[in-house]
Design goal:
The structure is a single chain. The protein is α+β, with helices and mostly antiparallel strands. The chain has 2 domains: about 110 residues; about 130 residues, Glucose Permease (Domain IIA) (Distorted Sandwich), CATH 2.70.70. Helix content is about 50%, strand content about 20%. The strands form 2 sheets. Strands 1, 4, 5, 6, 7, 8, 9, 10, 11 and 12 form a 10-stranded antiparallel sheet that branches. The chain has a two-stranded antiparallel ribbon with strand order 2-3. A hairpin with a 3-residue loop joins β6 and β7. The radius of gyration is 49 Å and the shape is rod-shaped.
């Protein structure tokens, strides 16, 4: 502060001396006034320049403060995003673990179903007759589980499971006494009693191989399930499908009847695998067999 005052002192003295000199020389008043005006203008310009520089300095300081605040906000936002990503990764891992556990449980149920009816799934993996671009695997152990379950689902979709009609099983598979002539005979399927005209449903997805009538089987339908399995539904009152039709599991394909060589309304139901007749009892009573399996465990 002292240095500033001392710096201003010579300048003030100089102005006084110069003004005194001009006064002594009897310089005209207008010239003196002009001189005072020039000095005032120069002082004003100097003050204005200092004010401009000060404003620029204040603007820079304000800009730097704004940048500091923005940087702090960006840092806080970055920290929040990192935390959010971490949370999402944890949630993703939990979802994957839950999905894999659920998939594993369903896979075990499918295995139980297929085992209970004696269906063996063969999964063949070979490097022959294959190719395509390389994509690295990052799914972990669940890859094999997903692959296996996909195979199971593809198989079980077409395996005939359950009964084509709700009712009482009146004649079993294998040796029996013929219900019409009373002689010993071999029954190639099972007979399920049903109400006349009630729905007969496909027990698996497939294609209608045959839709016909003869005096023994009456009105009957044969479905090809595309995996070696075929099912036959005989003694129908009416067929609701035509040869070549694609049907889904649970789709109504006919009505319970008493056509052909029959003693009352029922469905004669057969299952063949690779052109060999198999006992359909386990396939029909699949829910019962699964319940027994769970009780044993």
């Amino acid at each position: 502060m002292k240095s500033s005052q001392s710096a201003q002192q010579p300048s003030t003295n100089t102005c006084r001396q110069l003004f005194g000199f001009l006064w002594q020389k009897r310089v005209p008043v207008p010239v003196l006034l002009l001189f005072i005006l020039v000095l005032g203008t120069l002082a004003g310009i100097g003050f204005f320049m200092k004010n401009v520089m000060l404003q620029d300095l204040l603007a820079k300081i304000e800009t730097e403060n704004t940048l500091v605040v923005e940087l702090q906000q960006l840092k806080m936002s970055n920290d929040w995003l990192k935390n959010r990503v971490s949370i999402l990764q944890e949630e993703k891992a939990e979802l994957i673990d839950s999905a894999v556990a659920d998939l594993n449980q369903k896979s075990q149920v499918i295995e139980s179903i297929l085992d209970s009816v004696g269906v063996d799934i063969e999964i063949q993996v070979s490097n022959e007759n294959s190719g395509g671009p390389f994509t690295s695997s990052f799914g972990g152990p669940q890859d094999e589980l997903i692959f296996r379950t996909d195979k199971y689902l593809d198989t079980i979709l077409n395996v005939p499971l359950g009964a084509p009609v709700p009712g009482v099983l009146t004649s079993k598979f294998g040796k029996r006494i013929d219900p019409i002539n009373g002689k010993s005979a071999y029954h190639r399927g099972v007979d399920i009693r049903g109400r006349m005209g009630s729905d007969v449903k496909a027990t698996g997805a497939g294609t209608v191989k045959t839709q016909n009538y003869d005096k023994v089987k009456g009105r009957y339908i044969v479905l090809d399930h595309g995996n070696g399995f075929r099912t036959k539904y005989a003694h129908l009152k009416k067929s609701l499908v035509q040869k070549g039709d694609i049907v889904q599991r649970g789709q109504v394909i006919g009505l319970v009847g008493n056509s052909g060589r029959s003693t009352g309304p029922h469905v004669h139901y057969e299952i063949s695998y690779d052109d060999k007749i198999v006992n359909p009892t386990k396939f029909v009573r699949i829910a019962k067999y699964l319940k027994k399996g769970k009780e044993k465990k």
